[in-house]
Amino acid sequence: MYEKYNISATPTELIVDKNGKEVDWIVGYGPPADKFLERVQKSLSGVDTYLALSERYAKEPTNVEVVFKLAQKCGDRYTMEAKTKELYAKVIALDPEGKQGSYTFEYLKATVPYTQAAEFELGQMTSMGRKPDPAPLQSFIKKYPESKLVKQAYSYLGYYYGYQASKEDASKFFDAYTAKYPEDKDALGSYVQRIVRDKEPVDKGIAMAEKLKDIAGYPQNPNYQQNLAQLHILKGDAAKAEEEFGKDFIDGYVSNAVYALTGYANFWLEQNKNLESVEAMADLAAKLKPDQSYTLAQVAGIYAKLGKTDKALAIYGPEFAKKNWGDQGSLSSYASFWNKQGTNLDNALAAAKKSVELTSDYYNNYVLGQVLFKLKNYIEALKAAEKALELVKPMTVKYEGFPVQQYEKLVKDIKDAMAKEKGGEVKK
User: Fold this and answer.
1) pTM
2) Quick one: pLDDT band at residue 45, thresholds 50, 70, 90?
3) Which SS3 state, helix, strand or coil, does residue 317 take?
4) According to CATH, what is the number of the domain 327-428?
5) Are 113 and 101 in contact, with CB atoms under 8 Å apart?
């Protein structure tokens, strides 16, 4: 059993046995969490570690599976590039027709013969090495046009042609890439980025960027929008660039972020888990939209559920009401919120009264009636509730099925409370 090991968010971590002897290296960025844990468990049990595979290789130097897996382990080390290439080349030499077993690339959900996998790995290493050469991957694509790895091969080549190839070679490659995968975001995106860097052909770049925008849908992708705006700048159309990547875009993007943050917070509140994270996300949402009434109400509600009423009052308390004293909608929503919380009721009452003073509609009177009812001022509550019911009735004529039950219920509840207080019944 191995006494110590270390796994952290670094490119590689070394696992050693109880004597400090090197056992295995684990790549920190790559496989999904479940696969990563599977690799850790294998390493700790001595299965498919560098040490174990090296020992097997010494005994079975022509076993294609062992040679391939050892090549992978050498590749994980980053310091054994020559050995890695030598082992992958040996796999190809041992089984040129690819008949001695298969390997599954979990992250690609692709199972291919070891030989094909070795050719792919060699091509990937060569295209992204110190002296990048796209030829091996290009040959791979021609040799295995139907392989499940072809799309990934194009993606790797996209980096080379996007940053290092000549303009002419890049154009030829990306034309082929986007022709084969016309709806693929990586293909279109890498081509658009290359056009932005080359500053031509602008119209072609705009057409692809627009297509990419449509494929991405909503919420809009900031990288795609930035490239599209840059292309419009290159064309001399600053107004169009503003339309695509200006204030409206960023306002919408922030709104979506706030929606995600409050959604996350409310979800985990229901599970009663991750509560520190819930509070942190609520804090961030309030910072992103410090002047938006709806967001502040949402965040205040989260704080209230966390039992942090002081924080709720700090962002959505008397100072908020004072700041929005001329906005009847904000004041009625504010009063309704605190009525439901059952606290800060005096200030909620002041806000509700002001909202009615500004706009005496059915909803504002209804909220006023609710707050007065909560404060047990039944006489005034009944006046407000009956006023709300009177004002809402025309809505049932204008809109069939318009809900008035809550207004009727408030009137009834107030009358019942008054009757109970007097020890009798109030005539309906």
Assistant:
1) 0.74
2) low
3) coil
4) 1.25.40.10
5) yes
